[in-house]
Amino acid sequence: MRRQLLTVFAFAGFATALGGCRDNAPAAASTEVAPGMVAVTISSGTGQHRFLVESAASEEEQRRGLMFRTDIPENGGMLFAPYPPQGAPREASFWMKDTPTPLDIIFIRPDQTIARIAENTIPQSEIPVASGEPVSAVLELRGGRSVDLGIKEGDRISWTASSRR
């Protein structure tokens, strides 16, 4: 689905996320995160937006990502962290090959602020989508969620991964 500069990573992955909403949403019954899942919070000018996304930490998970998936929940997606799996943060370049669903690709700086948002990426496209600067994580959400929630570059992202896999 995507390419990392110099190294090809076909990213894609789906999230069975049912989590997030804004501050005024009811709190989750449990703070425990299911194995392989990550609770993500984006703090923006419009509030706290919560998502429950799949984790893509290994090279294989990051290569496969959300490929071939069509059932991404409203508050689902995938977190690629750390990105890349080994090594220091670097500029990232993704593509949507073999990904039939539009995604918002959110590039995250080492300080956990949003560097860039590629909104509603074109399904099946082989045109690279670049981060524009070194990143340490990437969050993919269902296409359009960033605009719907007022998420912007510079907003802060935090996450808590499952302690079990």
What this model shows, in words?
The protein contains two helices and eleven strands; from the N terminus they run ββββαββββββαβ. Residues 1-30 have low confidence and may be disordered. Helix content is 7%, strand content 38%. It has 165 residues and is mainly beta. Strand 1 and strand 2 (7-9) form a beta hairpin.
Tally of DSSP helical segments = 2
**Strand arrangement, major sheet:** 8-7-10-5-4-3-11
Strand content: 35-45%
CATH class designation: Mainly Beta
* Terminal residue distance: 24 Å
Instruction: Estimate nothing, just give the exact number of structural domains.
Output: 1
CA radius of gyration: 14 Å
Task: From the structure above, extract its key features.
mainly beta, single chain, disordered N terminus, four-stranded antiparallel β-sheet, seven-stranded mixed β-sheet
Characterize this entry briefly.
With 165 residues, the protein is mainly β. Helices cover 7% and strands 38% of the residues.
SSE topology sketch:
Elements: E1 2-4, E2 7-9, E3 37-44, E4 47-56, H1 59-64, E5 77-80, E6 90-94, E7 103-108, E8 114-118, E9 129-135, E10 137-142, H2 145-149, E11 156-161
Parallel strand pairs: 4-5
Antiparallel strand pairs: 1-2, 1-6, 3-4, 3-11, 5-10, 6-9, 7-8, 7-10
